[in-house]
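Let's do one together. I've listed all components of the complex below, 398 residues spread over four lines.
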Amino acid sequence: MDVKTLCLGVLSQGDASGYEIKKAFEEGPFAHIHAASFGSIYPALEALRGVGQVACRQLSQDKRPDKKLFSITEAGLAAFEKTLLSEPSPDKTRSDFLFILFFAQHLPAEKLARLLDQRIAWYRACLERMDDCAAQNGDAPPGAAFVRGMGQAVYRAAADYLEQNRAHLLGRVEKDHQSRDRDQKTIPPHASVSGAAAE
Amino acid sequence: MDVKTLCLGVLSQGDASGYEIKKAFEEGPFAHIHAASFGSIYPALEALRGVGQVACRQLSQDKRPDKKLFSITEAGLAAFEKTLLSEPSPDKTRSDFLFILFFAQHLPAEKLARLLDQRIAWYRACLERMDDCAAQNGDAPPGAAFVRGMGQAVYRAAADYLEQNRAHLLGRVEKDHQSRDRDQKTIPPHASVSGAAAE
DNA sequence: CATGCATATATAGGACTGATATATGCTGGA
DNA sequence: TCCAGCATATATCAGTCCTATATATGCATG
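Okay, and this is what the predicted structure of the assembly comes out as:
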C-alpha cells in the first residue's frame, strides 16, 4: 500500500490539501492505521495529478498561506477500488518504545518510570481524541466505525496493561540492579559482559 | 532507532548471523516490536564491523551454507546502552489490513469475510507462538517478559474485537450494498461519485 | 518584542524495503 | 525417481519513503 494509494483513500472521503492529508494520518481517522510524511505525500500527489487520478485547484486564503486543494477523479476512484481488492501485505510495526523496554534492566529506574508514564498518558490522550471523534461523527460509514473501534480496543488494552504491570516491572528491575551491584563487589566486572541479568 | 541499533540489541542477547537476526524480527522475541529486512541488516552489520562494534567469524557448516556469526564487542555494547537512553521516536504502524477495512463498503462481502477470518487466524497463531515462547523461556529478563506480555494483551484485544464485531460489520455492509442497489434503479448513477462502488 | 506554534508547500540526502540472484540440502508429491 | 518448493544463508539494487530543513505568514504567549 504505497503513499499514492493512501492519498487516494483520503481524497475519496473528500477534497483535501497535502497538509490536510498529512493531518489525517497524524490525528485524523487514519492516525493509528498508517503513517506517511510530507516527503512522500507531496510527490505522490504530483504523480497522481500527472496520470489524471487527482485534480488540483489553487486556493488563496486570507491570513493563511495559499493552499492546493486536491480532488479525486473518476479514474482515480477506479484505480483506488481496484487496489483495495489486492491482498494486504502484513502489518509493519516500528516501536522504539517497546524495543527500549525490552532492555529495561539496562535503564535507570527513574528513566524507566518516566517512559512508562509518558506512554500511558499518550494512550489515554489518543483514546480521548478517538472518543470525541466517535461522538461527533455518529454516522460514519461501517468500515470507518469498525476500524476506529478496533483502534480503541487495542489502545485500551495497551494502556491497561502498562498500568497494571508498571509496578511489577519496576520492582523486578530494581531487584536486578541491586543484585548486580552486589555482584560487582565480589567478582571482576568483566566476568559478565552481556549484562548477565540473573541473580 | 536505526537498523544498526536493532542489530546491536539482538546481538546483546547472544551471537547471531544476519539470517538469525532477521528471524528474531520475524518470529522471534522482537516480532511484534520492529520490522527489518535483509537489505538493511547485512549492510548494517558490515558498517558495525567497520567501526568495531561487532566482531565476525566465518563458520563452515555441514549440509548448510556457510554462516557469518557476529558478536557484539565492548564498544558495541557501550554504544548500544548509550542509544537506549535517547528519547524513543513515536511508534509507526503501517497496516494495509486496517486501511482496506476502513473502506469495507467498497468490498464484496465474501472478500471482507475472508479478510477478517484470515486476520483472526493470524492473531491466534501469533498468540500461540508467544505462549510457547513464554512457557519455554520462563526465566526471561524482566523487560523481555514485560514486552511479550504487552504484545499478548494487545493481540488478544485485537483478535477478540474482530471476532465480536465481525458479524455486525458484515451485516452493516450488506445492508449498505442493498440500499445502494435500490438507489441505482431510481436515480442516475453519477449522482453519488464517491460511493459509486457498485458490484 | 521575540520565540514558538499552526498553517502551507517543497526538496535533498540518506535510510529502508522488496525483489532478485546465487548456492545447498531436504522433503513431499507426481 | 525426479522435480518443485522450501529452509538455510549471504548479498545487492532500484525504487520508495522518512527526516530534516527551507521558505512564508499570522497568531499567541511570555
